[in-house]
Amino acid sequence: MTPDSKRFLHPEAIRRIGRLELRARHIVEGLLSGMHRSPYFGQSVEFLQHRQYAAGDDLRHVDWKVWAKQDKLYVKQFEEDTNMRCTLLVDVSASMQYGSGPLNKYEYAATVATSLAYLLLKQHDTVSCIAFDESIRARTPLRSTQAHLKAIVKSLDASDPQNKTDAGSILREVAEVSPRRGLVTVVSDMLGDVASTLRGLRLLRQRGHDVMVLHIMDDDELEFPFDGPTRFEGLELPQHLTCNPRALREGYLAALNRFLTTLRRGCAQDAVDYALIRTSDPLDAALAAFLCRRVAAERMH
Amino acid sequence: MSFLFQSLLTIGLPLIALPLLIHLINLRRHRRVEWAAMDFLLESQKRNKKWIFLRQLLLMLLRTAAIALLVFMLAGPVLQFQWGRFFGKGTTHHLVLLDDSYSMSDRGDRFTAFAEAKRVVEQLLDQALQQAGDQKLTLLRFSQAGELTAGAGADGLEQTLDRQSYEAVVAKLNKLPVAESDAGPLETIQAALSLPEPTDDETRIVYCISDFRTRQWQSNAETSQLLNQLREQAAQLQLIQCVDQTRPNLAITSLEPESGIRAAGVETWMQLTVANYGEEPIGPVTATVLQDGRKLPAVQLGKIASGEQVTRRFRTTFSTAGAHRLQASLESDAVEIDNVRYFACQIPQQFPVLLIDGSRDGDDGYFLRTALSPGGTSRPGWNPEVQRAEFLRQHDQLSRFAAICLLDVPRLDESEVAALETYVKQGGGLGIFLGPRVQRPFYNERLFRDGQGLLPVLLDKPTQLLAAAEPTTPDIKVSDHPLFRIFSGQRNSFLAVAAVNFYYAVDSSWRPPESGDTTVLARLRNGAPYVVDKQFGEGRVVLQLTKLSPKSTVLGDWSNWSVNPVFPVYANELIGYLSASRRQLKQHEVGAALALEFPEADYEPEAEIRMPRTKGSETLSVTPQVKEGLYVVNAGRSSVSGVWEFELRPRDGSVERRLLAVNVPTGEGDLHYLDREGLARRLQGIDYEFSLASQMTAEVNSFAGFRLTDTFLYLLLATLVVEQWLAYRISYHSGPINNR
Hints:
The complex is a heterodimer. Chain A is an alpha/beta fold. Chain A is 38% helix and 20% strand. Chain A has nine helices and twelve strands. Chain A is elongated. The N and C termini of chain A lie far apart (45 Å). The model of chain A is unreliable at 1-45 (pLDDT under 50). An eight-stranded mixed beta sheet of chain B has the order 17-16-18-19-25-24-23-21, sandwiched between helices. Chain B has a six-stranded mixed beta sheet with strand order 6-5-4-7-8-34, with helices on both faces. In chain B, strands 26-33-32-28-29 form a five-stranded mixed beta sheet, with no helix packed on it. Chain B is elongated and about 145 Å long. Residues 734-740 of chain B have low confidence and may be disordered. Chains A and B meet through helix 7, strand 10, strand 11 and helix 8 of A and strand 2, helix 3 and helix 18 of B. Strand 10 (230-234) of chain A pairs parallel with strand 2 of chain B.
């Protein structure tokens, strides 16, 4: 199938996100100069030195006290601004095949990832996309050109969800191979070993990455509305179960609640941004809501 | 516990397996879902396996119980134990239809069918007393049902059944004889349907105890239709057959005069008919006849084939005027009631006969009057009275005459014709003898009247009978008719000497009508009608187309008919034939209303009635009612056969006795019956239980007790409420999760 970048671009999502600036909460290394702060100048973000004002410099960084005293324009140098490095981790395991609406989880996740990639590339950030299940299925290098979007789309399109998930090990691998800090966005249903996944997320945070988890789940998985005798066959697990779903619903929802609570808490503890997104939610609203929360959280800091 | 509608139970009980069946079917009819979050599902299943199983098992049990309760409720549960009154309510109404028609007197080896029936009733009532709940009884006998449906309904006969009433009913039953009627089931079932319908807490059980004779049950479609209606009202219908074989039975079905009663001293021919209702020929059969208590020669009927009846004539003479009786009887057999038949009559001294003589010198009247009343020792029983035509205008006088003859009457006026027509229509007999004085246009226009009048034929002119080619050929040829019986056999020689010279020819356009009411009884040797008979209303007219008297007329001698030696015999037969319907007596059957009328002017207003077969011990004194110049004595409805005696007081101080014979209805002696298979074919579609009286056992009242329908209904509602609550509890109605 011919990859089509526009297939994974949600116009509404792009329009909404286009009004917001994606800003990292923490210092990241970037390949390109821009509005982001580089972590190589240390952990601090305090004043380093003055340099003479050159045309095009941001007037916010002009030291007006110096101008008042000396009647000369100087900009403050705090940290070297870098372009953000963003890694999109998209779950393409078998469990992502499930969907009860127009988009299954995988299609929804790929759309979200592509939207983010487009936004980031527009901001001249570098973006890399990794499709994973129990191993990395596809990886695009870090690039910042608009044309890179096509490569990202191509890598996602080529991925056919069919294997099990091992998000924990993938996250650890990414932490190992990404020495420079950046933004890691995980787009997944997070079904699997929660503890391992949380360990992976923690490692990424410890390495200084800004981590964002977009937890994609289908309405059926959240509500379990099934009725009548049903044979459930695992998409990743070999087990199957024939039952009356209504009899198991209460227990299922309790188990689901425990899973979601564990995940939320684990993310909160490691300052991982977490958002539960239903496949029935409008994509642009979900991303906009999440990014607004990120901006609000960044300003508080 | 028993159930009113066992068939519903049989159909409904398998439905109890429905919830299990649906569960098993659903297990195989699941849908497939490829599911991502299997972990949570498996965890839920592991944690709740036991509880889920228990709750679902309980739910299935509740649903099964609900279906079972519904089935039991609809099947009408009845609890026979006394403490069932705490759970239900109930009155059992035993409606007993008892056949007491005289076929039930069919005597078996030891008992009659009626005795068996009474024993069954006693047994049923005894068992009923031992059942739980209140018991009620309505006992309807076939013989009384006709009065109930015609007048008051049967609901007044309902009574509470307790030990005291049981004893009273049994005592009454023991004395109860079989009725002498042929009352069938139809009126009884109608009377039973006239009862108020059962209330909600009443269980009605209908028992029909009968011999189920084919004659009454086979041919009447209305009976089975009404029985079905009765069955729909009742919880159970029991048919109890009291006979188990068809026994041979003879019955006397008729004892009456052959052609009406005769006067005192006149030989009367009676005819006796015996029917064989059995399945084999019986014979030789002999009937014993008593006349006024005196034995007459026995009547031999010979062998009677199965299903046939034989009639024999015998002669008797009632020597004196007044009330007389005959009783015919057969030897004892299965049913004795129909082996006896009674006949009673009032014999007059003589029967008046009116002769309207129109002949010139009265010669026609002379010859006929002499033939009918020759005088001397001979007593033909007729009292001929010769009158002129004007006498016919006395309309109130005509009815006392046994017959009227017109002898060469030229014409009559309108009122005389009208009086004659009324007389004949009401059963009178008219003999018309033509002659030279007859005015043919009058006879044709007014008496024939295009075939609608009294005269049987359209007259042509008087015609001469030409001499025969063979001198020995009789002038008259007679048919095989009782009038000419005297000319049959060896007495035919008298016919040879009967000569006819002139006669009235019949118009060539006349043909005997298609209605068949006109018959030529005798013809002349040239084929011309000579004696013609016509049925007119309830009476008849006999026309002789020649003059009676042998005296010469303008044309010459018409005939020597009236001087033939056997003419008196012929005249007697003729008057007897004409007057037969007026001399017939009305037959009375058991159950009919008996009444006697006599003139107010001639009798005192008092009468005594003696019932039959009581040797005078049951006598009623009654005051008659007055009705249009007549006293009317009502004796009510006769319930027994025999001869009723009425004693009247004429105003001259004498005592007059009159007799009325009452006989059992015929046909009831046909003892063919419907057995189990026969009834099943006849009553197809009706749900009933059949049993033989001789094989009746205990436990027939399985439906007497307390009805638990309401109890089961409440239990069902409670079960459904609990089922719905449990279904809700196991999350069938839970709402969705909202994680927003």
